[in-house]
Amino acid sequence: MPSTEELLALAIAVAFAAGLNLSAVLVTLGLLSQAGILVLPGPIAVIGEWWVIAISAMLFVLEFFADKVPAFDLVWNALLTLIRVPAGALLAFAATDALGTGAQLAAAAAGGAATLAAHGTKLTVRSSVTASPVPFSNVGVSLAEDVAAIGLTWFAVEHPYIAAGIVLALIAAAIILVRMIIGALRMVFRGASRQWAARAADDGG
């Protein structure tokens, strides 16, 4: 049986991946369970059933295309905030089913925070990428997120400590990146507002 620390590390890493693409995480966990690589805890053992894997796969295909349409992807991901964050917390809670209630609640809180960090960064990056005139940039970012979600989930099962370390590093980098993007967007909006004000003054004159 994995140690408490391993379970917590696994929970945080999987929750972070869920913030990038929840359906991809569910498919990956289900297939790993079917392959005998992962034993899913009782509360979420149903994820390993083929019918759940099939539904998750269909949702993944739907999200695969919806997530790559500029502008629409922002609406899509904003709506999924209400699903991904609670699901990430639930996955972390269920992953630590063998621990006490206190540890489970702590894992759920950490997992929810990790999911929110990943999802929030995704929304922020998408906001800046959508403004780009090159549509392929949006597709590239989305593909990278899909690969990261699947790869991180698999890696967390095999190497939970390293995966958790990667997640912590990604969260730290995400905080810096989000601040930079927000700062850049503010400068763009300020410049645009100044130009609009100048044109309004010229028209008024």
- The helix content, as a percent range, equals over 70%
Total strands: the figure is 0
Overall mean confidence score, pLDDT: 83
Cα(first) to Cα(last) distance is 77 Å
Outline type:
globular
Strand content range: under 5%
**Helix vs. strand class:** mainly alpha
Number of helices: 7
Report the major sheet: none
The Cα radius of gyration reads 20 Å
What's the domain count?
1
Note poorly predicted spans: none
Summarize the structure.
The protein is mainly α and 205 residues long.
Task: Explain what you see.
The protein is globular, with a radius of gyration of 20 Å. It has helices at 4-20, 22-34, 50-66, 72-95, 101-130, 135-158, 160-204. The model has no long low-confidence stretch (mean pLDDT 83). The chain has seven helices and no strands. With 205 residues, the protein is mainly α.
Topology:
Blueprint: H1 4-20, H2 22-34, H3 50-66, H4 72-95, H5 101-130, H6 135-158, H7 160-204
Helix pairs in contact: 1-2, 1-4, 1-5, 1-6, 1-7, 2-3, 2-6, 4-5, 5-6, 5-7, 6-7
Key terms:
single chain, 7 helices, 205 residues
